[in-house]
Amino acid sequence: MKQISFLFISVGLLALLLQGCAGMMGGGSKVSHAHIGHVHDGWKDTPDKVGLINILEQEIKIAVQHSGFAIKKGANLAWMKTHTRHVRHAVDPSTEPTQKVGKGYGVLKAAKGVADHIGFAAAADGASKNVKVHAVHVKASAANVEALAKRIIKLSKSVLAAESADVARPGVEMIEELSQRMWQGFDANLDGSISWKKGEGGLRQAQAHMGFMRKGEGMG
User: Fold this and answer.
1) How does pLDDT run across 3-35, given as a tens digit for each residue?
2) Is 190 inside any structural domain?
3) Does residue 1 lie in a domain region?
4) pTM, rounded to two decimals
5) What's the rounded Cα separation, in Å, for the pair 191 and 98?
6) Most CB contacts within 10 A, which of 46, 75, 134, 137?
């Protein structure tokens, strides 16, 4: 009888241990995985219903491209203003409703969506330790992108208000720099690498940690 009781206890203990290991290795929950899917695979209100991080990449690419165009003719005020408006449309289309250069979703909305849904994934019942850890990294990087996007919109107002190329040019140059930071991140502490932390991480860091998360969850 004692042997049978010990066997039941051992089986129960083994089940608990296996459950704990699954949580550590990325078992996750359906709700948690659904929100990861919203970020990576598809979301209902994005163009072509792509994932939020996908549309974020598309809009940032446009901002980088047109901010680069703007500084190529730094003596031409009209040229700089035109491409600054294109950047604004990619960052926040509500600021330039007549432009058609961006995808119509915007960096701001996409970055907030990534941060929100990856936060939902981590907060879901049954979310694994893997999700909880990398969600911090993805969310921080997305928040950095959002903050940079807001700075771009603020700077762009001074460019559009400028009455000479000399006055507009510094703002245009900074917009190009901030657009690159949204894309690649920024080595704020000059340690030779770019982390996911506040002030450093950008799209690339968010994508990298989404990859780590999905791999840990067996999602690809």
Assistant:
1) 434 333 343 433 433 344 444 444 458 999 999
2) yes
3) no
4) 0.86
5) 43
6) 134
